[in-house]
Each structure stands twice: as C-alpha cells, then as structure tokens.
Design brief:
The protein is built from 13 helices and 16 strands. It has a seven-stranded mixed β-sheet with strand order 14-13-10-11-12-15-16. A five-stranded parallel β-sheet has the order 3-2-1-4-5, with helices on both faces. β11 and β12 form a beta hairpin. α2 crosses α3. It is globular, with a radius of gyration of 21 Å.
Length: 392
C-alpha cells in the first residue's frame, strides 16, 4: 500500500545521521537513506530503508522515481554540494512530488564562493581580501594579498575530483612549489579563490543556520561556533557549541535574505581580532556536519523543513543560550590528540568544560552507527601510529 510521505536523507555520514536522529525523535518513522557507499547511518535502526546508489544525477533520479512508487510525497535532505548539483539537474523531473530545498534559479551561482563574496560586498558584510584564479596567468593576482594565503576551489570540487580542499601558502616560495599542482587542476577546468588567512585557530569560527521557505521567510534559526577542527585549523568539525554573538545572527539573516536562498543554509564566519569583525568564510547550502548543535539547544531546523514541506505550521523556536552545550565527534578529537602537539587542553575543554556534552553518533537505543564509527576510529588511530613509528 502506498504511503503518504517520507523523508529522504542523502548521505549517511555524521550530518545525515543527525538528521535521522532529529526527525525520528519527532515521530517521523518513514525515513529513507540514499548513499553512494555504506556509511555509518546505514546501520541505524531508525531508518526504514537504505539504498546504495551511483554518484550520478541519473542514478539519483531513477531511485527517487522508484521511491515514488511507494510514497506520494518525498521531502529531501541533502548533505553535500554534489547532491545539490544533482538535485538541480533533475529538479523538473521530480519537483511535482518532491520537496527539493533549493532555489533552482540561483543555486549554481550561489554555490560559487566568489559569488558569495560578491554578495558580501553588496550587503556590507565583511569577508577576507580575495582574488579569483581562473587561469594560470591569474596566479600573479596573489601578489596583491598578504601572506599567509589560503587557496581553495570556488566550488566543492573535492567531492567529485582529486583536487585539494584547501592549500595553505606561507610564502611566495610555497606558491612556486605548488605551481604545477594548481596548473594541473586549472587545465582540468577547476577554478580557485585565493584569500588572506584570518589569524586565529578553529575556535574563532562561528555559524548561523537558518531554514528559509519558498515564500522568503526564515522560519527558524540558530547560531553556534566550532571549538576545534580536524585535522588542523583549516579542516572540518571536531567539536562545536551553541555560543555565538548577535552579530553572527544578523549577518546570517542578511545573507539568506539578500541572496534569496531557499532551504537550510549555513553562513560560516571567522572572527578577526585585528578589526573586531566576523568575516564570511563560506556558505553551506545544506546541512553541515555539526548541525545537531541547534537541535540540542532547542531549535529543530530539519523538522522545520519537514513541517513546511508538508504544509503544516512551523512554530518559531528560541535557542537555549543559558547553558553551554558541546557537541563532540570523538573520532576527530582522538586523532587530534595523537597527531597535534599540545592538543590535550583543547580536548579536555571540549569534553568537560560544558553544562552538557553530547557525543556525536552515540545513542544507547541505536548503537550500531557508533560502534561502526568506533571500529573506524581504532583502524585510523592504528594507521596513524604505524606511520609515525615508520618515520622514527
């Protein structure tokens, strides 16, 4: 018998599993997971079905059409930029029976980090001094920046190609050493941004997360900050909290409204102590890794999208800022402890210096995802130790 509706999660990593946790707690039991590999969320007892798919828009479209044979309406939750691009390509084929959380008229432009900085310029929002690199000749533009400099793809091309996520250049000689690598990727059609690095570690990064509906109203929102990153201060989330100043809230709202974004979006800022400004680093146009911080502090962004998608009223929620809530991904913290000198104090703070600490993936009623990730952690730690011993 055909069901009325389901939630479709794309991607089974930490962000995908956190969406599953939030929706399931709100009594949504028709949860389907699509992924291109068998990741941790595929082992959850909270999902109705897991489907392994190929990493192409056609494969995604085919499996969604099959899912439609069992469900009248499908609410989609993407977790990476490649999924957004694929959804954009198949939008017209599925939008009559799917809620696709994106603005099909401007998605591709807004995924481009240079476009994001152009909006900052229009809206008066601070961002680091940046130049775009579309050809090998453009590398001369870097001379207008102060070192150290960070080079990163204008879009998240590292998801689908072998390009680096970011490249740190301390001096001009570093650029000369990386010249051939950058040239190779430019010849392959990948373009880059080069930005001055804002000083400070990973604990200076703040985020605004909001859900903006197709009528242009932000229905719910929250703010927080990263406490640490992995494998270094230009990596991904290791621990995060619900602490952030009002300036992050105001600038995040301005970007969602000014760029006419639809769905869940997360502008990420870094505090620059030199001028006291919060400068945009990038905008994620989907749920990022540590979005559960909002859920743990009283704001159900994912559930807000689900309710809005099915035409039900969304109650505005106020984020709990009275308690310090830490969300910790143990896998990244453990590897940081082993590989980063003097990291002990940071790890101790992240785990114990909070009113409430929640470990990512851990659920006593759904242990398999956590156990699978723990095995992965042990394997990664052993590999790290063996590599270190081989260098002695």
């Amino acid at each position: 018998m055909k069901q009325n509706r389901c939630a479709l999660i794309l991607g089974g990593y930490v962000n995908g599993y956190s969406i599953i946790q939030e929706l399931y707690k709100k009594n949504i039991t028709e949860i389907i997971l699509f992924d291109t590999k068998r990741d941790i969320a595929s082992y959850s007892n909270k999902i109705r079905k897991f489907v392994l798919i190929e990493k192409t828009p056609d494969a995604l479209c085919t499996e969604i059409q099959k899912l439609h044979e069992n469900y009248d309406y499908i609410v989609i939750f993407p977790t990476n930029d490649l999924q957004l691009e694929h959804l954009h390509q198949i939008y017209m084929k599925i939008s009559s029976y799917c809620f696709v959380p994106l603005n099909s008229s401007n998605l591709l432009q807004c995924l481009d980090k240079y476009t994001q900085y152009e909006y900052c310029e229009k809206l008066g929002i601070p961002y680091p001094k940046t130049v775009h690199i579309n050809s090998i000749e453009d590398l001369d533009r870097i001379s207008s920046l102060k070192y150290p400099v960070l080079i990163k793809p204008r879009k998240r091309d590292d998801i689908s190609t072998d390009v680096f996520r970011n490249l740190q250049l301390q001096t001009r000689s570093d650029l000369e050493e990386c010249f051939k690598l950058i040239e190779k990727h430019l010849s392959g059609g990948i373009t880059f941004l080069a930005s001055e690095i804002i000083p400070g570690d990973g604990s200076n990064i703040y985020a605004y997360v909001g859900y903006r509906n197709k009528e242009g109203t932000i229905l719910n929102e929250w703010t927080g900050k990263k406490l640490s990153q992995y494998p270094d201060d230009f990596g991904v989330f290791a621990s995060a909290s619900n602490e952030a100043p009002d300036e992050v809230l105001y600038q995040g709202r301005m970007l969602l409204n000014g760029m006419n974004l639809i769905g869940i979006a997360e502008p990420e800022f870094k505090y620059d102590f030199r001028d006291g400004k919060y400068k945009l680093m990038e905008i994620n146009l989907r749920s990022m890794m540590w979005h559960r911080v909002g859920n743990l502090s009283g704001v159900n962004i994912q559930y807000s999208q689900y309710l809005d998608a099915i035409g039900e009223k969304v109650e505005m929620q106020n984020q709990d800022k009275t308690r310090r809530i830490h969300f910790v991904y143990l896998k990244h913290e453990i590897v940081n402890l082993i590989t980063r000198k003097g990291y002990y104090h940071t790890a101790f703070h992240n785990l114990f210096n909070a009113d409430k600490t929640v470990i990512a993936l851990f659920d006593p009623w759904d242990l398999k995802p956590f156990l699978k990730d723990t095995i992965s952690t042990i394997t990664q730690v052993m590999g790290t130790c063996l590599r270190a011993l081989s260098r002695v």
